[in-house]
Amino acid sequence: MKKVGIVIAVEGGEVLIRAQRDSSCGSCAGKSACGTLGSWNIKEKNKDDFDIRLPNALQAKEGDIVTVEVPDQLILTASMMFYGYPVLAFLIVGAFAFQFAENVGLSGDLFSAVGGLLGAGATWLWLMKRVDGFEMPKMVEIQK
Predict the structure, then answer these.
(1) Do 50 and 18 form a contact (C-beta atoms < 8 A)?
(2) Distance in angstroms (rounded) separating the CA atoms of residues 116 and 91
């Protein structure tokens, strides 16, 4: 999907782009914590504005209106990697820790909780090292 934003700062080899979610994002329950770029409009700064930092591949200048391309699968893939897989690891490792503890005569609840948290944390840390594999948003056009 392609969205439009305005360059508010150029810092080294990166640009800071300001955008605003429009009404299509207004009804979403997760809008306050969302950084998915939503649907953008160029308006005066208000509480719904958010900024994104991208490489300045097109040599944009402050004040330029740019088109940003967001890969369609980025949101789904990122959601699964950083929410789905750690929860799955929590459940699986917690279940194995519970069985192990019960078999050796220890408190299954305590081992289940600790094992689940360690499994989820380890999975999350492992996935954080794989972020470079994502196809990230990028500037594709400076509008004249």
Answers:
(1) yes
(2) 6
